[in-house]
Amino acid sequence: MFAEFRRQKTDPAAAARLERKKADAELELAKEEAKDEGEDYERKRAWDWTIEESEKWDERLERKRKAKESVQFADYAQAAERAYERELRNFKPDVGAYLTQKKKALQKSGQLRESEDGSIIPLDGDNSFYGDINSLDFADNKPPKEAVDRLVKNIQKADEQRMKKSRRIVEDGDVMSSMHYSVHATIINDKNKKFNAKLSRYYDKYTKEIRDSFERGTAM
Predict the structure, then answer these.
(1) Could you report the per-residue pLDDT of 77-128, keeping only the tens digit for each?
(2) pLDDT reported for residue 168
(3) How many Å separate Cα 214 from the centre of its chain?
(4) Residue 91 falls within a domain, yes or no?
(5) Which range is the signal sequence, renumbered to this chain (predicted)?
(6) Which of 206, 182, 209 has the alpha carbon at shortest distance from 196?
(7) How many domains does the chain fold into?
(8) Residue 96: which domain range?
(9) Do residues 47 and 39 touch, judged by C-beta distance below 8 A?
């Protein structure tokens, strides 16, 4: 218990989780008390809270609901899309490098156009910067060392998070217990278990005869 307390003191994320749990517990307690007194909690809250506080709380509940829905596994395409959106939110573009590369490409094309207001605009005539479907100039692009290091770091971080989650699942016993739901252990983690369950629900009726025939042949 002391070790857990010390970890929470040194881990801001753990302390934040504890505060959220405390707030949720206080909310549930207030709802139960209002129910016991025969009162409507939402109506009672409207009297005790300001409009701003009430709106903030509703926004927090909505964010919590969406976050809960977003982590539920539906399929691998959706999981990949969520991972892409998360990485995109954390991505910080190098605007300076972008402008430098654009300037070089426009100077290379050597084409100019006069705009409606009379200003001269350089054109990317050979599509070396704004490439089309036939452009192969991206193959000559050499990313800077900092960008490569950032990519490696992101991959390592993703691997660490995946391994940490796998260890947590095993420690909680989810995988080990779920492996006994069938004679054939065909899962590697809880996410895979849910995916296999969906496949089984839709396709087992079509593949049962094939599997039975295969197992009879193996036994012989």
Answers:
(1) 777 888 888 888 888 888 888 888 777 766 666 565 656 676 655 555 555 5
(2) 63
(3) 39
(4) yes
(5) none
(6) 182
(7) 1
(8) 74-142
(9) no
